[in-house]
Specification:
The chain is an alpha+beta fold and 325 residues long. It has 15 helices and 11 strands. The strands form 4 sheets. It has a 5-stranded mixed beta sheet with strand order 1-2-5-4-3.
Length: 325
């Protein structure tokens, strides 16, 4: 009997997790590693997409599985678990500090079904609470790693903790807002999340708002679609697509959404092994320019071109903007 295609199995794991079908995901994850546990290309792909901890959980700690690839995933899962616990502790400290002082907040683009642990935690607060929030964080032991005058987004860390707290009052790129921050605050809800075995009760966006900001961030800010972007948007796109589409249209993100959907279709069906997917710079900037034009912020975006590191990128953006004027 011929082994099943590993990439088809990997795609099924991603889709079943995205649609909240952990049983099916576990079944396929076990089959995948039982048949391809020695495949270092597959193991490298799982590690590159930071899915080792997910596969460890789905396979009961890799029970009964062996091979060079599995051994590499075990080590990576252990490291991811340590970072997950560090992230959980950081979240505990700042949420307790905020709640003691009555500071409104919402954590976005952080928690995910895939157990991926990023290098930072994104938290949004109202602009008028920025100074109070910074004071609360400093009193709680955080230290700034950015200029605190950057009120739209600044970074802080706890000594000995590798995770960065990104404190936002706006959601911007090149100094230009690309998502209305008030949507996330308005649509926040109290949820329980498990991170590294620690249960956290925090405020997170509604699934629709989370999907919309992830799509905007992936296309416009990062020009990259990761596995956890897929896991946190796929169910919303399938189950409540009309509601998401309405929000996308109100946010003038139609071009960004079209770009995301096309890449999503190709990735899940044909190009999974290319994850994370890089979005061409020209496509990214077209989506940003379209958004800025519809928001009436094209002049502001033009003025912000000096923030671009590379002159070639600035020149390209300038030409694209000129086409829209």
């Amino acid at each position: 009997m011929q082994d099943a295609d590993p990439w088809a199995l990997a795609a099924s794991v991603l889709v079943h997790i995205s649609l909240d079908r952990p049983g099916k995901a576990a079944e396929n994850a076990k089959t995948l590693l039982a048949e391809h546990g020695g495949d270092m290309e597959l193991a490298s792909w799982i590690k590159a997409n930071e899915l080792s901890l997910l596969f460890q959980t789905l396979t009961d700690g890799f029970r009964g599985l062996d091979g060079r690839g599995v051994k590499a995933l075990k080590r990576d899962a252990e490291e991811t678990l340590r970072r997950a616990r560090s992230m959980a502790r950081l979240i505990q400290v700042f949420t307790e500090a905020f709640e003691r002082r009555g500071i409104e907040y919402v954590i976005f683009k952080t928690f995910n079904r895939l157990m991926r642990v990023d290098v930072d935690v994104d938290v949004l607060i109202p602009k008028d609470m920025y100074l109070e929030a910074v004071k609360a964080l400093l009193d709680a032991g955080f230290q700034p790693i950015d200029d605190l005058s950057k009120t739209y987004a600044t970074g802080l860390m706890l000594p000995g903790n590798p995770i960065v707290l990104d404190l936002h009052t706006e959601i911007t790129v090149l100094g230009t807002p690309y998502f209305n921050h008030q949507i996330l605050l308005k649509e926040k809800t109290e949820t329980s999340q498990e991170l590294g075995g620690i249960v956290l009760t925090t405020y997170t966006p509604s699934p629709t708002a989370e999907a919309a900001v992830r799509i905007a961030h992936a296309v416009i800010k990062e020009a990259e679609i990761r596995a956890d972007d897929i896991s946190e948007t796929l169910k919303t796109i399938i189950k409540t697509g009309a509601k998401l589409n309405t929000l996308i249209q109100k946010q003038n993100l139609t071009l960004a959404y079209q770009t995301y959907i096309q890449i999503l279709k190709n990735t899940v069906s044909k190009k999974l092994r290319n994850l994370p997917i890089k979005i061409p710079e020209k496509q990214r900037m077209k989506a940003l320019i379209d958004k800025a034009k519809r928001d009436g912020l094209l002049t502001q975006l033009t003025m912000s071109l000096t923030n671009l590191r590379y002159r070639r990128s600035a020149a390209m953006v300038g030409r694209l903007i000129a086409e829209e004027i």
